[in-house]
């Protein structure tokens, strides 16, 4: 069959959008199907495409999976595991804030609303430390990472919630301040995997079959991603695993923390 | 009078023998002006018969151009009525008015050429009233016969050589002559010309007035023109209308004009 | 008989001027470009038909607009409008003098002309995202950064349209003034700008409307705004709220257009 | 002596016409609006000054542009341009007939005029994202959806500017034609459109350029494009690549402008 | 001749007694035309002395307007030289050229008013050459004295009543008169008028020509005007220049014109 596969703006998969050639070839060889790839940097568009049966598979992040699952009944098929996928809360080292509770009444910078590691996870983290992100802060600015970073340095926001790994990398690129001028005051546990999900209209048996082959050939497929070299080396250590919907219940819980409880009902409850 | 007769009259104008009798323009108690400024003229009335040549004179701002625009229905009258070819124009449906206007040839005081098109295209536009469509929008697309006709009209005003010149690269008098050719190209039944020779040199002015005269004489067309050249008014018109201080002060055959009468309009 | 003869005494001129080799090449290139572009964009009318049912489903989910949060949404719209007005105004004030330089043949200075045109192009090319970054670095998060970002965006757009509107104006009146020794600058203000005024109004009010519509940039600099609300609503699949927001913006756009048409009418008709 | 006397024999007319009560109210409202807007946008020149050093540092991090990925970036730019050309062309073809209806006083039909103006306003108000959704649902992911999204966006923009350009044209030539019974439609094509042509070119080429610049919409429908690359680059703090992308787009913008100025020159000067 | 003298001459024009002797316009071997189309006229030469009134006549398209534009430096000569007030204009710096032009009053064939401004503002623009600045951009901002002067100029052409009318709400002749007032308002040393009375009614035409005559007589200004009205040419000019087929065929004092000579220009 010819399947359409959308890749949303998943953290760390940007290169895949332009250099997915070998990956695609390997996938096609392993499954016997042909795949057409579409980089879609918006989960709403991906979800609507699924609902309209315009796309069959979507590679996306955990939070995206939760909402897409709710809106389209699409199901998780394979997890694309990533090492060190968690979030943190960063303040300036010379600031008085040493624990999340100190941030009460302060301004906070985060990623776009609904981003797993840049919004949901830090919000949950604050909640876990007894700070209600919706009530206790004096405001959350949802902006791009680069803007949040600069705003933190200026002191416009007291803290930012970040995807830890990419923050480390980005911090390295900012030569204007010493790397030690930041302080991480909280880190989350690892987040669930990115997901390859399939639309409700896709034949379940075929989907299961694809899951089986991919898991069986995971070494080769993962290698194909890394083999592109250059930037893609960062995928070293990725794994392809079979997953279940309930793995994402923690993410569902996070939606309550950001004030969108409509996505926090657990399936089956 | 039967409808059949009326139709006959309009389709074969040159054949009806006593054309002079039919009234082409009938104006009654007419007043017109621009928006808030009150009427430019009022209580004007006259009849113009087919084949007449009428000069409309008056000082600057007397309302000559306004009267011509009112005759064509471009300025709505404040009062009174205008009948052209036997029908009240301000009561017509737009499509009917268009049909009536397609028998008019009009020369505007400002020439009003389309400056980015060629002279020939501008003249061909004059035929659009009779037959519309993209084939007459620019000369390159026009049927051979239409182009030939437009060229003949240009020849009447002595401009064949400039047929492919862009209309914004003309001298003042050349552009006025193109406007005249555009008005003549469709062999109109009624010609309304607003100072058609103001920018022409003396010889060209005579030529154009002679063309007008011949067109009215041979094809039975009617001519109403405004002018500041009193010599032209008396030599080429059979009748003179004189606008002054908001009223029609003179309406007289040329040979019955009072001594020095036209001078009196300009004081 | 002087009726216009159907056959001309003169040879008819050619229908087309023979294009120069360069012009021919350029036409051919233009056509090739279009064919190539259409070819690459995967046209398919068939697909269009198939999508209708799903589209109906989508639209049904946007209906009826939800007026639950109308208060806070209206407030966001008004705040956005406020920043849009001051940003657009700043942009226009920035664009006006530069656009006079940028208009070809107006000031006679080719160098300044190229520089201003380049500047306008740069203003437009650097994306919102980067302007947001620059102004956050320069003045910090908040409405001021938003205003500046809008101003730059507006300047790039308005400057270009102002300049070309002034180029398009009939130069006769300005030339007649200059024939009497009037400075270029005076001639521009006395005759070019009055003539280009309707176009200026169109451009300015479009810029204002555009600033309201594209107010996502305000969200980026932490200034909130209706754009952010709309983004959140679609991101959270809250299409009914999104529909409300779009209707609100639509109403504002119509009001701005009405104001523009009123102003243009006054200028054109006096 | 007939030298112009310094004192007039006639009473000088008043400098200002007394504005009508309505006009006065509107002027007052306009001024209040502007004061309110500037007041709300937190102007502070001081802040601007303080930010300069950090800004310089930021710009230094964008330099030099990195030409490492120039191949794939150029490819993305070309693909984007391809979709932009076909989308913009479609939009313009859509906008032209509607804009004739939308231009006030051109066709005499007020109802169709209001409808087309409303349609253009709607095209513009509904945001990119929602058009992306609609076309993804209608025709699926890919360049075709992107082309359509660009087309709608272009139509909303170009339609408005086309219509107002036609309104601004001197109506004399068209009226002179209509005096001879030429249909409105013919008069529009023969005289209004030739007169508005330079403005049409400005608008169309700006629309093309805008489509390239705002190609983020292509990312929304899975068609890639240079906009996506730029977003990724800034998100990854890869400012040197971002600088490269901006320079590439800038070059394209300049080329498009040059083409426009060439075409305009031909139309204006013949 | 010393520079000091030349300066003296230009700053106090009316005082130097034998003004008639000074050459205001000196044209030598002049050829000019538009872009690719070859010269409209060539090898033209003449001198015009201060205080002269010169009529420039010729058929439509002969190049009268082009010659006037060349005299002002708007059309660059293909060949030859134009000296105004004793200096070659095509060698001047732009700012110097501007200074020279500020002593010229120009009436364009197309009037060229700024249509969205009032008549009074349009006339006030005529004073911008002498003193620039926003206070003279619109009448509402202009100093009282400037407004009074503009009104006096309007009075000379008989249009005081229309001072606050928008310039696009005028009749053809009214707009031409505004253009004339704009040229006169700055008391120019040289008046170049391109068919200044073409749209005027006979009385207004006489009035305007008389104003021109008085201005040259009383203030020592020089007048060059084109016209198709041969009667005006011979009555109001002291000298007639006749352009024909690309050359200056006539250059003669009015009283020495060959019998029927001007007619010969139009064939
Ligand atoms: N568009 C307009 N709006 C308002 N008033 C106008 C307009 N056009 C002309 N007028 C005024 O109406 C009066 C009549 O103008 P009209 O153009 O009919 O005069 P005219 O007899 O043709 O004069 P001319 O010989 O100068 O062409 C004039 O006083 C003029 O100022
Ligand atoms: N902008 C232009 N571009 C090209 N050719 C032009 C342009 N203006 C005028 N011409 C041509 O130059 C010649 C001289 O034109 P000019 O306007 O000087 O004539 P003129 O003597 O003033 O005639 P008129 O009495 O009709 O005003 C004409 O043949 C005309 O077609
Ligand atoms: Mg008139
Ligand atoms: Mg001329």
Automatic annotation (TrEMBL), chains B, E:
Any Gene Ontology CC annotation: plasma membrane
GO MF annotations in UniProt: ATP binding; ATP hydrolysis activity; transmembrane transporter activity
Pfam families, per the entry: ABC_tran
Membrane spanning residue stretches: none
Keywords, in A-Z order: ATP-binding, Nucleotide-binding
InterPro entries the UniProt entry points to: AAA+_ATPase (IPR003593), ABC_transporter-like_ATP-bd (IPR003439), ABC_transporter-like_CS (IPR017871), ABC_transpr_LolD-like (IPR015854), P-loop_NTPase (IPR027417)
Residues in ABC transporter domain copies: 25-267
Gene3D superfamilies listed in its UniProt record: P-loop containing nucleotide triphosphate hydrolases (3.40.50.300)
Homology family: Belongs to the ABC transporter superfamily.
PANTHER family the record matches: IMPORT ATP-BINDING PROTEIN (PTHR24220), TRANSPORTER, PUTATIVE-RELATED (PTHR24220:SF659)
Protein name, per record: Phosphonates import ATP-binding protein PhnC 2
From TrEMBL, chains C, D:
Topology relative to the membrane: Multi-pass membrane protein
Cross-referenced InterPro entries: MetI-like (IPR000515), MetI-like_sf (IPR035906), PhnE/PtxC (IPR005769)
Cellular-component GO terms for this entry: plasma membrane
Recorded coiled-coil stretches: none
SUPFAM superfamilies in alphabetical order: MetI-like
Keywords: Cell membrane, Membrane, Transmembrane, Transmembrane helix, Transport
A Pfam family: BPD_transp_1
Transmembrane stretches, start-end: 21-38, 83-107, 128-152, 186-208, 215-233, 239-256
Top-level lineage group: Bacteria
Protein location: Cell membrane
UniProt KW Transmembrane helix keyword: yes
Gene Ontology molecular function: ABC-type phosphonate transporter activity
Residues of the ABC transmembrane type-1 domain: 77-258
Family, similarity comment: Belongs to the binding-protein-dependent transport system permease family.
PANTHER family referenced in this protein's UniProt entry, alphabetically: ABC TRANSPORT SYSTEM PERMEASE PROTEIN P69 (PTHR30043:SF1), PHOSPHONATES TRANSPORT SYSTEM PERMEASE PROTEIN (PTHR30043)
Entry protein name: Phosphonate ABC transporter, permease protein PhnE
Organism name: Terrihabitans soli
Lineage: Bacteria, Pseudomonadati, Pseudomonadota, Alphaproteobacteria, Hyphomicrobiales
């Amino acid at each position: 069959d010819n399947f359409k596969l959308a890749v949303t703006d998943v953290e760390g998969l940007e290169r895949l959008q332009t250099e997915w050639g070998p990956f695609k070839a390997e996938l096609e060889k392993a499954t016997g199907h042909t795949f057409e790839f579409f980089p879609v940097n918006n989960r709403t568009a991906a979800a609507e495409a699924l609902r309209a049966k315009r796309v069959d598979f979507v590679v996306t992040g955990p939070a995206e999976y939760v909402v897409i699952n709710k809106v389209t009944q699409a199901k998780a098929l394979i997890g694309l595991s990533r090492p060190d996928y968690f979030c943190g809360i960063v303040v300036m080292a010379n600031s008085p804030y040493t624990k999340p509770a100190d941030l009460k009444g302060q301004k906070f910078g985060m990623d776009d609303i609904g981003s797993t590691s840049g919004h949901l996870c830090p919000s949950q983290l604050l909640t876990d430390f007894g700070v209600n992100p919706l009530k206790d802060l004096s405001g959350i600015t949802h902006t791009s990472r680069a803007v949040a970073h600069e705003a933190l340095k200026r002191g416009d926001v007291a803290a930012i919630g970040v995807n830890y790994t990419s923050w480390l990398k980005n911090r390295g690129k900012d030569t204007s301040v010493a790397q030690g001028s930041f302080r991480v005051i909280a880190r989350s546990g690892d987040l669930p995997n990115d997901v390859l999900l399939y639309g409700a209209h896709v034949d379940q048996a075929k989907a299961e079959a694809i899951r089986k082959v991919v898991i069986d050939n995971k070494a080769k497929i993962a290698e194909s991603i890394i083999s592109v070299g250059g930037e893609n080396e960062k995928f070293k250590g990725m794994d392809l695993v079979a997953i279940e919907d309930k793995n994402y219940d923690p993410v569902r819980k996070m939606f309550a923390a950001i004030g969108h409880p409509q996505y926090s009902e657990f399936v089956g409850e | 009078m039967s409808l059949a007769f009326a139709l006959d009259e309009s389709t074969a104008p040159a054949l009806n023998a006593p054309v002079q009798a039919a009234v082409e323009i009938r104006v009654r108690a007419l007043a017109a002006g621009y928006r808030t400024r009150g009427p430019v003229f009022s209580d004007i009335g006259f009849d113009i018969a087919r084949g007449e040549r009428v000069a409309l004179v008056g000082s600057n701002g007397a309302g000559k151009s306004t009267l011509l625009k009112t005759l064509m229905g471009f300025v709505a009258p404040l009062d009174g009525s205008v009948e052209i070819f036997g029908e009240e124009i301000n009561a017509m449906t737009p499509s009917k008015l268009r049909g009536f206007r397609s028998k008019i040839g009009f020369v505007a005081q400002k020439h009003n050429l389309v400056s980015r098109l060629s002279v020939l295209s501008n003249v061909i536009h004059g035929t659009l009233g009779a037959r519309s469509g993209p084939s007459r929008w620019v000369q390159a697309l026009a049927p051979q016969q239409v182009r030939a006709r437009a060229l003949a009209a240009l020849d009447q005003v002595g401009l064949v050589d400039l047929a492919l010149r862009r209309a914004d690269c003309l001298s003042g008098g050349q552009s006025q002559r193109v406007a005249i050719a555009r008005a003549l190209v469709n062999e109109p039944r009624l010609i309304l010309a607003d100072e058609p020779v103001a920018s022409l040199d003396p010889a060209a002015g005579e030529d154009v007035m002679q063309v007008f005269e011949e067109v009215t004489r041979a094809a039975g067309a009617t001519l109403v023109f405004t002018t500041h050249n009193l010599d032209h008014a008396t030599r080429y018109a059979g009748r003179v209308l004189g606008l002054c201080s908001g009223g029609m002060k003179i309406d007289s055959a040329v040979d019955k004009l009072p001594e020095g009468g036209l001078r009196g309009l300009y004081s | 008989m002087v009726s216009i003869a159907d056959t001309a005494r003169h040879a008819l001129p050619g229908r087309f001027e023979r294009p120069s080799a360069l012009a021919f090449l350029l036409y051919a290139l233009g056509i090739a470009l279009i064919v190539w572009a259409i070819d690459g964009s995967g046209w398919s009318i068939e697909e269009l038909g198939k999508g209708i049912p799903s589209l109906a489903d989508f639209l049904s989910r946007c209906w009826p607009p939800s007026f639950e949060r109308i208060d806070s949404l209206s407030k966001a719209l008004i705040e956005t409008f406020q920043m849009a007005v001051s940003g657009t105004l700043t942009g226009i004030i920035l664009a006006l003098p530069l656009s006079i330089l940028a208009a070809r043949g107006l000031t006679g200075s080719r160098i300044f002309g190229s520089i201003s045109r380049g500047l306008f192009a740069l203003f437009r090319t650097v994306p919102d995202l980067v302007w947001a970054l620059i102004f956050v670095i320069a003045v910090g998060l908040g409405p001021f950064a938003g205003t500046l970002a809008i101003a730059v965006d507006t300047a790039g757009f308005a400057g270009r349209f102002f300049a070309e509107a002034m180029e398009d104006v009939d130069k006769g009146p300005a030339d007649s003034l200059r024939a009497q020794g009037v400075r270029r600058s005076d001639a521009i203000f006395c005759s070019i700008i009055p003539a280009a005024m309707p176009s200026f109004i169109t451009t300015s009010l479009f810029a204002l409307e555009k600033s309201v519509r594209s107010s996502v940039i305000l969200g980026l600099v932490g200034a909130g705004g209706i754009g952010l609300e709309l983004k959140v609503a679609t991101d959270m699949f809250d299409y009914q709220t999104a529909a409300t927001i779009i209707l609100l913006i639509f109403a504002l756009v119509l009001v701005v257009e009405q104001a523009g048409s009123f102003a243009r009418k006054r200028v054109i008709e006096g």
